[in-house]
Design goal:
Elements lengths: L7 E2 L4 E2 L5 E2 L10 E6 L3 H10 L4 E6 L2 E2 L11 H26 L4 H8 L24 E4 L4 E3 L8 E6 L6 H15 L2 H5 L2 E6 L7 H11 L6 E5 L2 H11 L3 E3 L5 E3 L2 E5 L5 E6 L6 H13 L3
Parallel strand pairs: 9-10, 10-11
Antiparallel strand pairs: 1-4, 2-3, 4-5, 5-6, 7-8, 7-11, 9-14, 12-13, 14-15
Length: 295
C-alpha cells in the first residue's frame, strides 16, 4: 500500500519506509506524520507531477527520521535498537562458542609449553659425583623470574654456553651453533637434550632482558633455559667450565668461546672450543649422553 504525497497517517498505525503499515509490532507514533517524498535528482523531482514514480518515501516525526525497513521488528527508532540488540546477542554466542572450542587444550599441556626446563617439575634426583656442577650452592634466576639451583637441570644432558645479550660478535655465532646442533641431532637424542645459556653480564642482563632475547632469537621454551646470577656465582661457574672473561671499556666482554656438554648428572662430558666448528664430534657426544640418561 502506498501513500500519496501529503497524506496524513492515522496515529494508530506506523507507516514504514516502503509504504507498508504495521500495527502489531514496532513503535506507534504519538504525533501525526507527514509523508515526505525524497527524489534522487532534480529531474526526478520534476517528473513526479506527471508520472508520480521514482520516489522513496521518508517519513519524519519532528526532526527524527524513521527511514527503517519493516520486518518482524516493526519500524521506527525502537526497531533499530531491537535489531542491534539481536545482532549483539548472536555475536556474543558465536564468540563464546569459538572461545570454548580453542581453549579445549588441557591446562597441563599449556603449562608445559610455557615453562623452560629449569622451571618445570624436576626429574627424580640422582647421586651427584665430586665432578658434578650440580653440587654448587649458587642460585640462578631464569628469564621467567624464577630463582633455582643448577641441580634442577639434573636428569637430562645439557648443552651449555656462556654469553651476554649485548655481544656484538661471538655470542650470536655461539647461539647459532647451538641451534644448528639442535636441528642436526637424531630425533631420539634431541627429545632428551636441553640447552643452557648463562650470562656474563650480571648488571644488564635482567630476567626481562633475557626474556626479550629469547623472543628475539625465537629460542624454544620447551628445552632452552636462560639464566643470570650474581657476580661471584658467574665467576665460579665460568672457572669450572674453563671459561675466561673480562669486561672492556665499551661494555663488551672479551671471553672464551666454548660449548660444553654436561651428562645427566651435571658432569662435563665434552667440550668444543671455537666458532662455526664442525658439529660431528659435538653431535656424537650429545647422543652418547642422551643414550645414557635415565628414561
Amino acid at each position: 500500500m502506498k501513500t500519496p504525497l501529503g497524506t496524513h497517517i492515522n496515529s494508530h498505525h506506523a507507516l514504514c519506509a516502503n509504504g507498508a503499515i504495521h500495527t502489531s509490532l514496532g513503535q506507534r507514533p504519538r504525533n501525526r506524520m507527514k509523508a515526505v517524498l525524497r527524489a534522487e535528482s532534480p529531474a526526478q523531482l520534476r517528473s513526479h507531477s506527471e508520472h508520480e514514480t521514482g520516489f522513496q518515501p521518508l517519513y519524519v516525526v519532528g526532526s527524527e527520521s524513521w527511514d527503517v525497513a519493516p520486518g518482524w521488528y516493526g519500524c521506527g527508532p525502537l526497531a533499530l535498537r531491537a535489531r542491534l540488540a539481536v545482532r549483539i546477542l548472536v555475536l556474543c554466542f558465536f564468540a563464546s562458542f569459538l572461545n570454548a572450542t580453542f581453549a579445549a587444550e588441557p591446562a597441563a599441556t599449556a603449562a608445559k609449553e610455557d615453562k623452560p626446563p629449569c622451571c618445570k617439575v624436576p626429574l627424580a634426583p640422582g647421586k651427584p659425583t665430586d665432578k658434578s656442577l650440580y653440587r654448587l650452592d649458587s642460585k640462578w634466576t631464569s628469564d621467567v623470574g624464577k630463582t633455582v639451583p643448577l641441580s634442577v637441570l639434573r636428569g637430562r644432558p645439557q648443552v651449555v654456553a656462556m654469553f651476554f645479550t649485548n655481544c656484538e660478535y661471538a655470542c650470536p655465532i655461539i647461539v647459532n651453533d647451538l641451534r644448528r646442533l639442535e636441528t642436526l641431532l637424531p630425533a631420539e637424542a634431541r627429545a632428551k637434550t636441553e640447552f643452557l645459556l648463562v650470562s656474563f653480564d650480571t648488571k644488564r642482563d635482567t630476567p626481562e632482558v633475557l626474556a626479550a632475547f629469547r623472543k628475539k632469537e625465537k629460542l624454544p621454551v620447551a628445552n632452552w633455559t636462560l639464566l643470570r646470577g650474581g657476580a661471584d656465582d658467574v665467576r665460579e661457574l665460568a672457572a669450572l667450565l674453563g671459561i675466561n672473561y673480562a669486561p672492556d671499556a665499551r661494555g663488551q666482554f672479551a671471553h672464551s668461546t666454548i660449548i660444553t656438554v654436561l651428562n645427566a648428572e651435571g658432569e662435563v662430558a665434552f667440550q668444543q672450543p671455537g666458532l662455526n666448528a664442525a658439529p660431528d664430534a659435538l653431535i656424537s657426544a650429545v647422543a652418547k649422553a642422551a643414550a645414557a640418561a635415565q628414561r
